[in-house]
Write a structure and sequence with these properties.
The longest helix has 18 residues, at 2-19. The radius of gyration is 25 Å and the shape is globular. 50% of the residues are buried. With 502 residues, it is α+β, with helices and mostly antiparallel strands. The strands form 5 sheets. Strands 3, 4, 5, 6, 14, 15 and 16 form a 7-stranded mixed sheet that branches. Strands 2-1-21-20-19 form a 5-stranded antiparallel sheet, sandwiched between helices. It has helices spanning 2-19, 23-31, 69-81, 127-140, 265-279, 325-335, 338-353, 358-371, 396-406, 412-417, 436-439, 483-498; strands spanning 41-48, 53-57, 88-98, 101-109, 145-146, 150-153, 188-194, 204-209, 216-219, 222-224, 230-237, 240-250, 256-261, 288-291, 297-298, 315-321, 380-381, 393-394, 442-449, 452-459, 470-477.
Amino acid sequence: MKKITAILLAAAISVSLASAQNPAARYINTLRNANTLKEASWSVLAVKVKGDTIANLNSRQKLIPASNTKLITTGIALNELGADYRFKTKIAYHGKIEDGTLKGDVYIIGGGDPTIAATQDSCATPYSKLFSSWAKMLADAGIKRIEGRIIGDGRWFDGMEVDGDWAYDDLGTYYSPGGNGLCFYENEVDFRAVPGAAVGAPVSITQTWPETPWMSISSIAKTSKAGSGDDLLYYATEMAPVGEMRGTLGIDSGTRKEECANRYGALTCAYYFFRHLESAGISVSDGPADIDSQRHIRSFDSETSPWAMPWDSLKVIGVSESPRLADIVSRTNHVSDNFYAETLLRATGREKAGSAAYPAALEYELQALKKLGVDTSYGFLQDDGSGLSRRTWITTDFFVRFLKSMRKSSVWKEYLASLPQPGKGTLSGRVNGAPQSDRSRIYMKSGSMGGVRCYSGYVLPANGKEEDTIVFSILTNNVTAPSRELLPQLDRLIELIAAENR
């Protein structure tokens, strides 16, 4: 009890002392009485690398960091795998080639590459070009016809495809698709939704991209009153090829694009490669398939489910590579891509601990943090890679310690460049009140979910002296105030922190 009291007293003294010294700390005291944060749980820590504390409020309080978790996931992936690491996808076959005909199956052996057919990803190879390179691998091996299947093989990632603690309502959304070692279009599927002509009428739901012909998709969504907005939710699972759209769409909402989770990324990849081969004149007699959790070959138009062949029995005929990890990390942080972040966590576990399963990957994350020199004995509990889980609890003190350690990493330059700045990526419209000379020195990651708003990162010094770099973290939880009221206040706090090393 005495220890807890001492910690709280130290935090209060820190705020009190700082409040007499700088505007940022004084503004924190103002916010403590503001309606936006009066009933919230929140924490702030901002320090200079050389040791000066700018502001400190509840810095040892564990809070939900949302997508600030990606700061740790991406930093560890870069530090452990290296900026030049590339995910590899192998094309292999099982069977015999006779007179240009493969009597057997082609395997697309995924290596975790999250960029295959990725949406709006300028660093990724267009999937048509990628598939052409895979087709050339087959041609170079003398394969002109296939009497067998195209099998999407995602076995490189073992374990559950989604984190077990994600909210049920999140599981059908584009931002929580999960997946195994082979994906397509970030395992997303898009629908066109149009409200009915009257309240209570069915909402028209049409699948647009990609095609998933093995799925049976239904809808019980209804049209709701004007002003009620979009409350559509899609439910699907990898355990059965069914999906259902539920919820409501306001009658005045117009045509909407609904971005949802595709639980069959490996099969979708195999399906589109199959179609690519067919269009190139290479027939595939038994169509596309994937491999289920029991390691059976799965094709929903066939009643047979033979065992997938072990990798050491396959003949690898070619390998394609993803963009550099540094580029993937940059996209992850700039657009806060959950799918990429989960892939980075699991790929690090697979490469370094031999397993991509969440328990093994998270356990290795702890080891990697310790190697980086970060004490994980307090202030840290990570449950996933993206921050979607509400069972991840981290302190601002931990974020500051981690961010300070990353400055000493060999991948510091790439890591810093991966972080958004005001006016870019997820920070568009943020910190507009600061002069451009300050905004250009801020590198930070945002994080948000219901009732949660967070920002952590760096402010580089105007004088160029590294010891004057500011490392900061701001976490707010249980916020009931509208974002239009809270965000300007957090922006102002960041502006005042950035002013401390002009």
